[in-house]
Amino acid sequence: MGRVAVGAAVVCTAAVCAAAALVVRHRMINSRKWTRGLAILKEFEEKCGTPIGKLRQLADAMDVEMHAGLASEGGSKLSMLISYVDNLPTGDEEGLYYALDLGGTNFRVLRVHLGGKDKGVINQEFDEVSIPPHLMTGSSEGLFDFIAAALAKFVESEPEGFHPPPGRQRELGFTFSFPVKQTSISSGTLIKWTKGFSIDDTVGEDVVGELTKSLEKIGLDMRVAALVNDTIGTLAGGRFYNQDVIAAVILGTGTNAAYVERAHAIPKWHGLMPKSGDMVINMEWGNFRSSHLPLTEYDHDLDAESLNPGEQIFEKLLSGMYLGEVVRRALLKIAEEAEFFGDTVPPKLKIPFILRTPDMSSIHHDTTPDLKVVGTKLKDILEVSNTSLKQRKIVVKLCDIVAYRGARLAAAGILGILKKIGRDTVKAGEKQKSVVALDGGLFEHYTKFRVCLENTLKELLGDEAAETVVVEHANDGSGIGAALLAASHSQYLGVEES
Fold first, then answer.
1. Residue 177: active-site member
2. CA-CA 20 to 30 A from 116: which of 1, 23, 242, 261?
């Protein structure tokens, strides 16, 4: 009896030992996997590094590319497009002006009442109109007739006392956010459609001419005074309120920058020197690239699989369209190589662009002790439940790395513009303010991104110069800015009211 008991005890002890060994082995495997995950994270952080020295090199490279792009067409990855905007608003503009903002499947028509220095923008009204899908792939005439009809309907609601006097035309600022070769302040030929539009007979045509034909057809006497893009509209809107605005940057789904250049510093400009001596340049800075950019394997893969491989490299590092996607790709590698979410990779994690930048922002701004928001987002988006606090912290860290890299690169780009126009240092006896107007959802809503950008710019400039440079949020440049540019390029400037 005693022997049996002893034997059972021995067997039992062996089983316990085996189980314990399994636990230890499991822990060791888990520990190895966790170590591998942390190693991938560390390598990613190092590759995304943006030390101040590197950012200064990038600012210098931006300055060099700006010079090259101004010297000749095709001289740089930066197009440095001449906008023909040589008069920015002074704040004195008065009267009623219209704007048309066409940049996607909806367009807006606006009416802006300007009251000059003392009153600024007295009133603004707008309507938003959806474009029927068949018109996005139909004929040029069909699309512009539809837009003209919407404009005419909007004009009908114009207040009684604001009808133009006999012989005067209403004037319109036209924001057209598609690739255009500008030929004057009020003309430009369409290079290609994007954003789901495909109307062959508009390509190569002057979009202002197409709109004007449709307006004339229905008897609406309205002149397009300015054809602009949203970045230049933001610059105009900023300048109306603050004469120290010298540049504008859009940080939204995409990114771009525009700034005020001295006309004599544009070798490729062969026209008459504008009276103002200035010319606004649309940089198309999303296409900037340099050997100093901190690119990772995830960025190279994202670029290779994109609709425009090799193009818009800067944009792919810092705009809202791509930030969440870079985080997803890095998280996928950790899930595959370190079994971050267990034996199987969550199928949803393999879907490109499933993690949007607004979701990434929510994750990044989670202040709950147990990172509850992160857990909810992972469950809602990737269908991963029961994540540990350790796992959630890793996801937040990925957001940290990608957002801060983007914000710091944007700051380096702004420094490049300031260098080009000599506003990056304080000259003896000068305390000239330089204001950069910023717009776009990424800048407006992603607080950590915005704060990092502002702090990095201060660090790059140094205390003295940082006191003279201001980053200011300028809202709705694409709409109101176009109306302001119609006012500053009015055919009636300097003409007395009859």
1. yes
2. 261
Q: What are phi and psi of 88, to 5 degrees?
A: -90, 155
Sequence-distant (≥ 6) Cβ neighbours of residue 458 within 8 angstroms: 466
71, 204, 360, 423 from 378: Cα distances, Å = 49, 46, 10, 44
Is 63 one of the catalytic residues? no
Tokens standing for residue 241: 């309120």
Spatial CA neighbour of 143 closest among 172, 183, 100: 100
3 is catalytic: no
Distances (CA, A) of 389 to 181, 272, 367, 393, 398: 52, 65, 13, 6, 14
* Residue 498, pLDDT above cutoff 50: no
Q: What is the pLDDT of residues 12-36, one digit of tens each?
A: 565 555 555 444 554 555 678 888 8
For 413, other C-beta atoms within 10 Å of its C-beta total 26
The residue annotated as part of the active site, out of 76, 83, 140, 177, is 177
Q: Give me the torsion for CA of 314, 317, 323, 329, rounded to 10°.
A: 130
Helix (H, G, I), strand (E, B) or coil at 188: strand
Three-class DSSP category at 24: helix
Can you say whether residue 133 is alpha, beta or left, with left for phi > 0 and alpha for psi between -120 and 50 degrees? alpha
CA pair distance 91, 80, nearest whole angstrom: 27
| 167-188 pLDDT per residue, tens | 889 999 999 988 888 899 999 9
Q: Is 254 left (phi over 0), alpha (psi -120 to 50) or beta?
A: beta
Q: Which amino acid is at 39?
A: A
Contact 215, 154 (CB under 8 A): no
- Please, which residues bridge with residue 438 across strands? 249, 473
What is d(CA 193, CA 138) in angstroms, rounded to the nearest whole number?
12
Q: Cα(56)–Cα(459) distance, rounded to whole angstroms?
A: 11
Q: Provide the 10 A C-beta neighbour count for residue 187.
A: 17
| C-alpha span between 42 and 287 (Å, rounded) | 28
Residue 389: exposure state from Cβ atoms within 10 A (0-12, 13-18, ≥19): exposed
